[in-house]
Amino acid sequence: TLPLPGIQPVLMDDKRNEIEENQVVGSLCIKFPWPAIARTIWGDHQRYKDTYFSTFPGKYFTGDGALRDEVGYYRITGRVDDVVIVSGHNLGTAPIEDAINEHHSVAESAIVGFPHEIKGNALYGYIILKEHGETRNQDNLRSEINKLISDQIGPIAKLDKIQFVSGLPKTRSGKIMRRILRKIAEGDYSNFGDTSTLLNPEIVEEIKEGKVE
Q1: The CATH number fitting domain 9-76, selected from 1.10.287.370, 3.90.550.10, 2.30.38.10, 3.50.50.60
Q2: What pLDDT shows up at residue 90?
Q3: Strand runs (DSSP E) across 118-210, as ranges?
Q4: Strand partners, 60
Q5: Cut 0.90: pTM above it
Q6: Helix 202-209 vs helix 178-185: angle between axes, to the nearest 10 degrees?
Q7: Which residues contact 141 (CB under 8 A, 6 or more apart)?
Q8: Has domain 82-209 been given CATH number 3.30.300.30?
């Protein structure tokens, strides 16, 4: 999508430099104030400054990672603080998803953590395949995806479980409901909350039925 008039987004790299090119990912910031910007946190202005302006001084940090494609459209890739601790390693899910999405058969992915008796947590991947990928051997695809992750990030980031799905539960604004995916990965079906507001509520039952054990 493109930003609303008056809002100037920028992508920042890990060295706090603004990324000028297209077809890149980075931390999403807003370069200048806009009419609806929050001005403080009631009773704790220092917390407001620390939360939104300390990571990238002079810019408002949204807390999200984003992709800017070849024509300048933005897509939110997830919270940069969405971290899963695996065997003592802090693994951000967004970079892993970025690596997976580079596979020529993958359309979209979402990664969550689930409890593991040895590693503390392990990684569970929900992956939507492109049309030509749906006819391929799924075990081969799982191996290729984990090799891609291992090559780009490291063996520690490989997925313990990969479930191929036809869609992901999303809000009407396009945000992936990771809370639901996390509960399914954990095998907890007790309370998904109100799913009637999802863009595709029927996908929850489909994903639950196809859960990888």
Answers
A1: 2.30.38.10
A2: 74
A3: 120-129, 161-165
A4: 30
A5: no
A6: 20
A7: 103, 105, 129, 133, 162, 164
A8: yes
- What are the DSSP E strand ranges found in 9-96? 9-12, 18-19, 24-30, 60-68, 74-79, 83-86, 89-92
3-state secondary structure of 51: helix
Query: Residue type for 78, please?
Result: G
What gap in Å lies between CA 176 and CA 109, rounded to an integer?
10
Q: What DSSP designation does 4 have? A: P
Q: Are strands 89-92 and 106-116 parallel, antiparallel or unpaired?
A: unpaired
Partners of 68 in the β-ladder:
24, 74
Residues (pLDDT < 50) of the chain are: none
- CB-CB contact of 72 with 22 (8 Å): yes
- Residue 198 tokens, joined: 């999802």
To the nearest 10 degrees (0 to 180), the angle between helices 93-101 and 138-152 is: 120
